[in-house]
Amino acid sequence: MPRRDETRYVLYYWPSLQGRGEPIRLLFEEAGVPYVDIARLPEDEGGGVAAIEPALAGETTGLLPFAPPFLEVDGLLIAQAANILQFLAPRFGLVPDDEPSRVAAHQIQLTLADLMSEAHDTHHPISVNLYYEDQKEEAKRRAASFTAERMPKFLGYFEDLLRRNRRSKGRHLVGTKLSYVDLSMFQVLSGLAYAFPNAFARLEPEIPLLVALRDRVAARPRIAAYLASERRLPFHEGGLFRHYPELDEKPAAGKTGARRRKTSPKR
Amino acid sequence: MPRRDETRYVLYYWPSLQGRGEPIRLLFEEAGVPYVDIARLPEDEGGGVAAIEPALAGETTGLLPFAPPFLEVDGLLIAQAANILQFLAPRFGLVPDDEPSRVAAHQIQLTLADLMSEAHDTHHPISVNLYYEDQKEEAKRRAASFTAERMPKFLGYFEDLLRRNRRSKGRHLVGTKLSYVDLSMFQVLSGLAYAFPNAFARLEPEIPLLVALRDRVAARPRIAAYLASERRLPFHEGGLFRHYPELDEKPAAGKTGARRRKTSPKR
Hints:
Radius of gyration of chain A: 20 Å
Largest interface: A-B, 42 and 41 residues
Distance between the termini of chain A: 65 Å
CATH class of the largest domain in chain A: Mainly Alpha
Number of domains of chain A: 2
Low-confidence stretches of chain A: 256-267
Structural class of chain A: mainly alpha
CATH architecture of the largest domain in chain A: Up-down Bundle
Shape of chain A: globular
Number of helices of chain A: 10
Oligomer: homodimer
CATH topology of the largest domain in chain A: Glutathione S-transferase Yfyf (Class Pi), Chain A, domain 2
Largest sheet of chain A: 4 strands, mixed
Mean pLDDT of chain A: 93
Strand content of chain A: 5-15%
């Protein structure tokens, strides 16, 4: 990571979470643009959660952020992940130049943000100020609706977008080249597969273009290097995507059936 | 309302709801720009919910919307309310010209969208595919957290933004003139006051700049005319902001206390 005085870009996000900051990290990594992920610096170098607090408390100039992530660039302070991506992507060549493509990319990014919020609320359906354990029963109900109804609806929609983007032969969500929306789609698919492995495995055969996009993004040299590095934080049960087995679907009936058939003697 | 061939702008949104479409309607009304709110036309003139369905089913060209609202303009189809507002506002002079102001406006609009989603989830904490009655107990828990914690946090944040915008003397969220974000703020404050009258009344003394902004927006000639017209739909219990007394706070203790003191004889 560069020093703070070596780059124009300072990202403020929770130091132990992928969360809503990760699509921004992926953008910097793919672009190969140096950035300081400031809260991940040691505390004695100005890092840690303490780095985030002054802006949230209104002690800095510029627009007050409601919550991380926010980005400092050229004296501006920008919050809301989709807003940050929309600001950076044209500077990094990671969105087409024409207005219709940019409007389309942002529309998709906002829909991904909606899906991320719904994925978050599966484990926090009542309040962000309560522990998961204090809303576990409600979480089971919400997660059942999410995996059975919402996740298939959203992923089916994104698969449709790929199929309809004939100019890219279904390889990109917008235009004919990789854009920031493809990176964010990779992140959301990875998070859903982590949090709900059974539900995701059930849906996977229905979203072949999305799965192929995810795998192509993961194989891009800079992204692959990032994912293998210590900069990539692991998913865990403090983040936006959480794996609680009780919130996932049961393993697909097909698999269980296949195993049962194997072990049962023929009659 | 103009005929479809008399305007460039066709808005697609549920014909009986304010919801996420209302900030867009307010923008057109304040700008005085003719638009067709197509689903509100009679069905035999191409209106009704049937007008929305072909685009959602992917039967039109252009980018597929995930959900209403979406806007047809110059052959483009644009979805996601904040994206539509960001596209239209510069054309209507309802956002400042410079990039920092536009980034700030969009950041605020996205935070308003987050607040609207949280307000929606007070009555649908488990699933949008279930009736309120089937998630009423969970709704009570989520609403209690919303009115006690989230609503004060969001409104306190927006009040701070006004106070910090010294260039406008606290009269506007961005810049020194009315922008689309002020219109959306009016809408959200109106919705919260409708849905949670007791909780809103309790908070009102702490948000004087927001309350003054709301009242100034309501008094603008074009907005006042719109609010008094049949084009403004009423709030009701099918919309995003819903008034269920059991989800609101109890009336402020002060008021009850005052009444009690009046009726108790002095000892």
